Amino acid sequence: MADLTNASIADPVDLLVVGAGVNGAGIARDAAGRGLSVVLCDRDDLASGTSSRSGKLVHGGLRYLEYYEFRLVREALIEREVLLRSAPHIIWPMRFVLPHDKSQRPAWLVRLGLFLYDHLGGRQKLPGCRRLDLRTEPEGEPLLPGYSKAFEYSDCWVDDARLVVLNAKSAEQNGAVVLPRTECVSIRRDGDLWQATLRADHSRAERQIRARIVVNAAGPWVEKMLAGVVGYNARSRVRLVRGSHLIVRRLYDGPQAYLIQNTDKRVIFVNPYEGDYNLIGTTDIPQDADPDQVAISPEEVAYLCAATNRYFKRKIAPEDVVHSFSGVRPLYDDAAEDPSAVTRDYVFDIDAEAGCAPLLSIYGGKITTYRKLAEHALEKLKPFMPKMGAAWTGNAPLPGGDMPDADYESYGIRFRAERPWLPQAVAQHYLRCYGTIAERILGEARSLDDLGRHFGAGLYEREVRYLVDEEWAMTLEDIIERRTKYYLHLSQDEIARFAAWLARERGTSQAHAV
Ligand SMILES: Cc1cc2nc3c(=O)[nH]c(=O)nc-3n(C[C@H](O)[C@H](O)[C@H](O)COP(=O)(O)OP(=O)(O)OC[C@H]3O[C@@H](n4cnc5c(N)ncnc54)[C@H](O)[C@@H]3O)c2cc1C
To answer: How high is the pLDDT of residue 508?
Structure first.
């Protein structure tokens, strides 16, 4: 894959996008498909910032209705089905059960919210909401007997880190140069162009490039970028709010998720995760420290365990937490007092004095709205780049999502029937991670032996080589945490053996520890 020193980069390039989270990767893809020359760089791995640490929902955001965020909710509701069609392998529908009792928001308010949710727009495939009698329906089984009523509604699940990789891949297929582990260390205006210095993480090699437009998609580092890289004395407009998730062994059988209301009125998701687990979150804590230092606190663990224990028969304690992760929301500061109430909508700041090269900075946003955000960003940039093509991503599948009629189930049946030798769990993994690209990865293989060395839990050498050769994976974390979730399925010994193999393959003795 191209690296900073050998990449062929236009001079000047139309667009330099700094930050390969979901927003930067989405903008790079959209821009490249409109015919612009694009460089997308990230100082670390793709999706190594907030975009691999989200709640992994493509959702309208039921709770945002309480803050009258109708524009955001409507856009997000419509996007659910657009994204579902474009990547049915990594995005799938999920039903959410909302147990209800008298201590919570009144039932009429919940019903009104769900009615709006069903009717604000865009719902074609996803089933609408319904009431549940928890005393008779299976969804009541894992819950404490005090809960007899519930509502149930639809949203979607997404593999957030893979969504970023697929956008970067699509950007590359459309001609963009994608440079992970390449930091933008400075940009300076030189008339109607930007002069940018990029630095490769490993070799420390630097390269100057010229760009007509720079997009600052650095997420929680958006202002660090403005101050440190551009040299601006920017007034602070970003509100950094940490959110953490716990991973525990699954509390119940069944594909449904639960949305539970805590005593402080905050809502918490308990979602099925990676087959054997539940993902529980999130919190809203002001992140005063550097976003690089983000970590879950013991208080957050206790808070999430206590909220879960108010609803489920199976109790959890901090010792039951198998893993946890925390991310920082780069929210636009609308001066709300409560971190949960700060707007989740996105805001653009365009700095473009007459005759000067423009800089577009992005605040806020959600995984769910990244594609619309990208379209809106390019609309903003159109006056500076009138030759750009029209919006195109609304009907275009992401890599691996090009299944007939976006029908994942039928595609899966055919895929499995053609490979009776592939164990069900391995087939499921390939289908979910790679969609139609799985056929290319498996190639002419006719047995598991053809997949090379087995590292455990269905991870074979052939998949690793694909990730390294085609998805910019380099380290242990890239492979088993972001491109896949094998870190939850391999034993510690297997991880150690895989790390040692990877280090040997890479000719280095330092594969990063998980
Ligand atoms: C706990 C939590 C739960 C969430 N849940 C959901 C959810 O369920 N659904 C949903 O839709 N949204 C959710 N979100 C919101 C969503 O995750 C974020 O809005 C989104 O991931 C932000 O993406 P980004 O591209 O702006 O930032 P990031 O993903 O952080 O990307 C910014 C990138 O910029 C890079 N960078 C920084 N400085 C430089 C530099 N100088 N040079 C090169 N690269 C640089 C960083 O390395 C980083 O990779 C959640 C967020 C959190 C924190």
So the answer is: 59
Whether ligand 1 lies within 6 angstroms of the CB of 271 is answered as no
Least confident of 132-141, 332-341, 355-364: 332-341
Contact 270, 110 (CB under 8 A): no
Q: Which amino acid is at 511?
A: A
Nearest-CA residue for atom 21 of ligand 1: 51
Nearest CA to ligand 1 atom 15: 366
CATH fold of 13-50+162-237+344-395 reads FAD/NAD(P)-binding domain (3.50.50)
Q: Which CATH superfamily is domain 238-332 in?
A: D-Amino Acid Oxidase, subunit A, domain 2 (3.30.9.10)
Going from N- to C-terminal start, the domains of the chain cover 13-50+162-237+344-395, 238-332, 404-513
The per-residue pLDDT for 234 is 67
56 CB less than 6 Å from ligand 1?
yes
Q: What architecture is domain 404-513?
A: Orthogonal Bundle (1.10)
C-beta separation of 508 from 502 below 8 A:
no
Q: What are the structure tokens assigned to 182, written together?
A: 């390449």
CA of 49 to the centre of ligand 1 (A): 5
Pairing of strands 321-332, 346-351: unpaired
Q: Before 283, cis peptide (omega within 30)?
A: no
Question: 196-220, pLDDT tens digit by residue?
Answer: 999 999 888 999 999 999 999 999 9
Residue 22 alpha carbon to ligand 1 centre in Å: 7
For residue 228, give the ligand 1 atom closest to its CA: 41
Ligand 1 pocket residue status of 55, Cβ below 6 Å: yes
Ranking 8-12, 157-161, 189-193, 227-231 by mean pLDDT, the lowest is 227-231
155: Cβ below 6 Å to ligand 1? no
**434 vs 246: CA distance, rounded Å:** 26
Closest ligand 1 atom to 22 CA: 25
- pLDDT the model gives residue 255: 97
